[in-house]
Amino acid sequence: MTPDEIVRTFLDHYHRRDHRTAPESSLIPPPGDPVLFTTSGMHPLTPYLAGRPHPAGRRLANVQRCLRTTDLDEVGDATHLTVFDMLGSWSLGDYGIGTSVRWGHELLTEGFGVDPGRLHATVFGGDDQVGPDETAWATWTELGVPVEATGAENWWSNGPTGPCGPDSEIFVWTGEGPPTGTPSGDDRWVEVWNHVQMRYHRHDDGRLTPLPMSNIDTGMGLERLEMVLRGDRSVFTGDGLRPWVDAVRDRWPLDGPDLRIVVDHLRSAVVVLGDGVRPGNTGRGYVLRRLVRRALTVLWRDDPERGLTELPVDPYADTLRRFRQPAEAGRLRAVLADEERRFRGLLRRSRPLVDRLRARGPLAEPDYRWLHDTHGLPRDLVDGLLTAAS
C-alpha cells in the first residue's frame, strides 16, 4: 500500500464507525501552549480530552503531522524520524478500550492484511496507584493475540503533568520465520499502534485524579506502518523518504546513519519551514537551525564543498504535498541555502576560537559551555566538524 492508500483505508475504517474527521493542526501550537511543537495527534485535542465538548462530536479520527525533539538523538537508526505523520482515532467519553482494541485488530488484519499470527500486544500490569488493565488483557486474549504485561512502558502521558493513562501497544513481527519471544525482549517485534485509556490527570506532586470522562486516544505512525506493510526493516525505504534518499545518494556517497540523519533532518526542516518557522537562535527557530546544521555537519565531515543547492527541488515539493502544506518549494529551498551560507560564515569565524582552546589541552565542560552560550556552537559541531578540520 502507498501512504495515500494507507490513510484512506484508516479514515474509511473509522468513518464507517461514525467518526468525524478532526481538523489537522499546524506543527505550531496556538498561543499560550507551552510546548514548541505539536508532538502527537492528541496534543491539539487536549482541551476536549479534559472534558470540553468537541464541535464534531465524540468520535474523531485524523492524520496529524508531528515533531518530536526528544527523538533527535535516536535519529540515524532505521525507524526513528523527527517529523512524521500520525494516524489517530479518539473516543471522547464514548466507547471503551475493549471496543477500540477490537476495531484496531479488525483494521490491521482485514483492512491492512496483517497476518493475525504476527501480532503481539502489551498492556499495563499495574503499579501502586492503578491496577492492571484486565479489560485490554481479556480482549486481546479473546481475539487470540498473545499479551505481555509491563509497567511504566504501558503508561502514556504527554509530559510530566496533564492527561495520562494505561495503554495497550500493538506489535508486528518483522523477523524471518515464525514469531518468537515477546516485545520486551526481541526488537524484531515492532510497535505500530498505541491505544491509550486517557482517564487521569497527573498533578505536579504526582497525584492522579480522574478526568471528567474516560477517553480513548490511539496513535499509529504512518511511515512505520508503511514499513511493516512493505515487509521492510527501515522507514527510509518508504515512499515519503525515498525521494530524499535518492537525491542525496545521487550526489554524495553517504550510507548508514549518516545518510539517514541527512535525509531525516532536511525533510523535517522543510516541514517546519512549511508551517512558517524560520531559522533563529531561540525556540522553534533554534530547533530548525539545529536540524539544518546537524545535516550540514554530517555532509561536510568528508567534503566541505558539498552544498544544499546541489539537491533538486523535487524532494521539497514532494514533502510539502505529503504533509498537506501549501508553501512554495523553491522559496523554502532558498531559505535553506541562506542558512547554509550563514553556517559557513560561523565556521570560518569559529575555527580560530576552537584552535586556541585546543592548544591549551583537551576541551573541558566550561569550554563547551562558553562556545555554546557565547558563540552558538553546539558540542557535536565542536567535536565533529571543527575539530576534524583544525
Structure explained in plain terms:
With 390 residues, this protein is an alpha+beta fold. It has two domains: 3-234, BirA Bifunctional Protein, domain 2 (2-Layer Sandwich), CATH 3.30.930.10; 240-388. It contains twelve helices and nine strands. It has helices at 3-15, 46-49, 97-111, 134-143, 222-230, 242-251, 256-274, 283-300, 314-322, 329-359, 365-375, 379-389, and strands at 20-21, 59-67, 83-91, 119-124, 147-150, 155-157, 162-173, 189-202, 208-221. Strands 1, 2, 3, 4, 5, 6, 7, 8 and 9 form a nine-stranded mixed β-sheet that branches. Helix 3 (97-111) packs parallel to helix 4. The protein starts with a helix and ends with a helix. Residues 1-390 form the Alanyl-transfer RNA synthetases family profile domain. Keywords: Aminoacyl-tRNA synthetase, ATP-binding, Ligase, Nucleotide-binding, Protein biosynthesis, RNA-binding, tRNA-binding.
**Domain unit count:** 2
* Largest beta-sheet characterization: 9 strands, mixed
CATH structural architecture of the largest domain: 2-Layer Sandwich
Percent in helix: 40-55%
Cα distance spanning the termini: 49 Å
Number of helices: 12
Helix-strand makeup class: alpha+beta
CATH topology of the largest domain: BirA Bifunctional Protein, domain 2
The residue-averaged pLDDT reads: 94
* The CATH homology group name of the largest domain: Bira Bifunctional Protein, Domain 2
Shape: globular
Query: Over all CA atoms, what is the radius of gyration?
Result: 23 Å
CATH class of the largest domain: Alpha Beta
Q: Could you tell me the number of beta strands?
A: 9
Would you list the SSEs in sequence order as H and E?
HEHEEHEHEEEEEHHHHHHHH
Beta fraction: 15-25%
Low-confidence stretches: none
